[in-house]
Write a structure and sequence with these properties.
Layout: H1 2-17, E1 37-39, E2 44-45, H2 52-66, E3 71-73, E4 81-97, E5 103-118, E6 123-138, H3 150-177
Parallel strand pairs: 1-3, 1-4, 2-4
Antiparallel strand pairs: 4-5, 5-6
Helix pairs in contact: 2-3
Length: 180
């Protein structure tokens, strides 16, 4: 008898929560359901930093693919919607220093223009002309020595951008898909 009462309570609670309106973050979509093919052309790089547009373009494509609902193509032709974006600025600023006053940690800020357009009706579904991303990274030689040669600096800079590009891509795609 007690087991039946518990079973009825559990079932009632389960049925009552079915229409509660909660969903897992990153799984919802406010885009029209008939958008299935997303064109993501190469991002435009208006900065002096080499290759960041290639890395970021690929990360954004991968993030859309990872959502599982969209087929991604590298151009606007044949796409239901197109993501047009350009990187407008990248700044590096020292935020921490060693005992000898050499920069050991930098703040990285990337700003970009983003426009997600429904190509079938030529209407912008989501846009932001000043989308900004910030990240910090350490700049050391890996041996505890704070002296760094140019090659190490460039290697660490690209590795750091690769890490922040994952966050940028996730944030951009979430903003577009979930209408933030």
């Amino acid at each position: 008898m007690v087991q039946r009462v518990l079973l009825v309570l559990v079932l009632a609670a389960a049925l009552g929560s079915v229409g509660c309106g909660y969903a897992l973050a990153g799984r919802g979509s406010f885009l029209p359901t008939d958008i299935r093919v997303v064109g993501i052309p190469q991002l435009v790089n208006r900065t002096t930093y080499f290759d960041v547009e290639n890395i970021l373009t690929q990360k954004i494509r991968n993030e859309f693919i990872g959502r599982g609902k969209y087929r991604v193509v590298p151009e606007a032709t044949g796409a239901d919607a197109v993501l047009n974006a350009e990187i407008t600025s990248i700044t590096l600023s020292p935020v921490a220093f060693t005992a000898t006053q050499l920069a050991s940690r930098y703040q990285f800020v990337l700003t970009m223009k983003v426009d997600f357009v429904d190509t079938r009706v030529n209407k912008s579904l989501w846009a932001n002309d000043a989308y900004a991303f910030t990240g910090e990274y350490d700049l050391t030689s890996g041996t505890g020595d704070s002296t760094i040669n140019a090659a190490t600096f460039v290697d660490q800079q690209l590795a750091s951008f690769d890490r922040i590009a994952n966050d940028i891509a996730r944030t951009v795609v979430t903003a577009i898909v979930e209408a933030f």
